[in-house]
Design a protein that fits this description.
Strand content: 15-25%
Number of strands: 4
Number of helices: 2
């Protein structure tokens, strides 16, 4: 009987540790998918994709919760309002395909942590296009970065 309890305890601990190890991997893949979905959108005319980044964790606000962020750095000769209008055609909600002018490498949308583009930004024709991803799996509860 003692051997059964020991085995059950070992299985429960192993399962819990597996979730702790798998959660960051799964959550990072969801953030990466968010950026990839943006990168797969057709670019407007006179626009080039420069770089993409992503991050998972508690990125903005207070409290607990996992958030998934994907962003593109684009360079365009189009004005900001025209880019906003273009990307709004692909947005399913208000958290998709947000366009803002990008003046430096750091991404200001992210409050917690350090996320930045690697490309040196020189000029006023760089823009960030970003979206917030979603995940309904249990893995967001087991990722320490969301707490």
């Amino acid at each position: 009987m003692k051997k059964i309890f020991t085995t059950m305890f070992f299985i429960m601990i192993t399962a819990f540790l597996s979730f702790l190890i798998a959660a960051p991997i799964v959550n990072d893949s969801i953030a990466k998918k968010t950026a990839a979905e943006l990168a797969n959108l057709p670019l407007p005319d006179h626009t080039e994709l420069v770089e993409s980044v992503y991050q998972a964790g508690k990125l903005i606000g207070n409290g607990n919760g996992m958030q998934y962020f994907g962003a593109l750095l684009i360079k365009s000769n189009l004005p900001l309002e025209e880019l906003k209008k273009y990307y709004s055609n692909f947005a399913e909600n208000e958290w998709d395909c947000i366009v803002e002018q990008q003046m430096r490498t750091e991404i200001n949308v992210i409050e917690h942590g350090n996320l930045a583009f690697q490309t040196e930004i020189a000029g006023d024709n760089y823009y960030i296009v970003y979206s917030w991803g979603d995940n309904d799996t249990i893995f967001h509860d087991f990722d320490i970065r969301g707490h």
